[in-house]
Amino acid sequence: MEMSGEGIHALCDDALAEILVRLPSESVLRCRAVCKSWRRITTGSSFLAAHAARRPVEMITLTQSWTVSAVPLSPDLDVADDGARRRYLCDPSLYGSDGAWTDWCRLLASLDGLLVLRQRAGLYIVCNPTTRQWTNLPVLARRPCSAAFPCGFYYHSPSGEYRLLCHAEEEEYTAAGCSSSRKDYYYTLSAGSTLPRRLARAPADRPIQMGYESPVAHRGILYWFCLHPEATRTGKMLAFGTDSETFRLMSRPPTGDTSSSATLLVLDGALCALATQDGELLDIWVLRDGGCGAAESWTLRHRVVMTPPPPPRCSPYGRDFLPSTAISAGGGAILVGGCTSSVVRLYDLKEKRVKEMQLHSTPTFLMFSESLVSHAFFQAPRCPELAPLKFPD
């Protein structure tokens, strides 16, 4: 049916928005260049929220060349189409003045379409691969911060800022320039700010291995299960309120002798802990908030015998597949990672079945969803030391 007058331009803003919101992100970005009216519609807050809600939830993966990519999450995830469905987000490889590859930026976090990468200790990149914008967070200077361990990336509602929480070791120096003592502090690095902010004293225990595990975020709180400085000494989880920016310790779920191999995830709107027993039993504990100041408690929600049982797979520690991280794949399915980086298990809780797969790329268990929001902090001057990011053509 032909339209009279000016064609599609004769449509009202609401009708145009209903059409444009269904387009892929790349098409929306091109439509912004058509005219001022389309740009105004596609940059409005209601349009951006509606468009983001339509974007599929994906899991970030890393290719053999360390390129950051994404694979759609679904209950029918299949290794056969892993490569075909994967799309590239950015290339964090670092190159020297001669153009030769020298290193790569480690991926740390994903939130609201933003990625955080570590170029070196104290220097972190925040980028939006959809709009191809990137800049650095405030830099933690090597003096006094001799070491830095990123803990988690979050949105601070009172200020409207995106912040990276870091555990930093501060060296105190004598007049002669010699190190005299060391203290630990938590810092926050806010996107768009020029200087880091010291938040509070941190535990003096050295962070384990590479530092803190990637936290699980739920209802304005970041949770670390066991890879935090106080885990061994207290046997508790660590929680951080992202609005109040305060810490507290809380009880872990009673997962028995599998506690060292349990992992946290958000499932059906609740914080859960997942643990497997002998690779066949799947236990899911849910955190219950008693309310009115009552203590939080863990309740066993599911104990499922998976059929068929997954094939045995030994870890470097001589035990079966140890769940190290997990995310919801939607539709009552959970994607679980173990000791082998490219091997995952897909647990279907509805059908009570398990499928083991070896993906073509390394899963990160970080979730990603596109965002067309153009944040003002991307216009801030960059650190001269910051290496450029590459985006797909």
Automatic annotation (TrEMBL):
<dbReference type="Pfam" id="PF00646">
    <property type="entry name" value="F-box"/>
</dbReference>
<dbReference type="InterPro" id="IPR013187">
    <property type="entry name" value="F-box-assoc_dom_typ3"/>
</dbReference>
<dbReference type="InterPro" id="IPR050796">
    <property type="entry name" value="SCF_F-box_component"/>
</dbReference>
<feature type="domain" description="F-box">
    <location>
        <begin position="11"/>
        <end position="51"/>
    </location>
</feature>
<dbReference type="InterPro" id="IPR017451">
    <property type="entry name" value="F-box-assoc_interact_dom"/>
</dbReference>
<dbReference type="InterPro" id="IPR036047">
    <property type="entry name" value="F-box-like_dom_sf"/>
</dbReference>
<dbReference type="InterPro" id="IPR001810">
    <property type="entry name" value="F-box_dom"/>
</dbReference>
<protein>
    <submittedName>
        <fullName>F-box protein</fullName>
    </submittedName>
</protein>
<dbReference type="InterPro" id="IPR011043">
    <property type="entry name" value="Gal_Oxase/kelch_b-propeller"/>
</dbReference>
<dbReference type="Pfam" id="PF08268">
    <property type="entry name" value="FBA_3"/>
</dbReference>
<dbReference type="InterPro" id="IPR015915">
    <property type="entry name" value="Kelch-typ_b-propeller"/>
</dbReference>
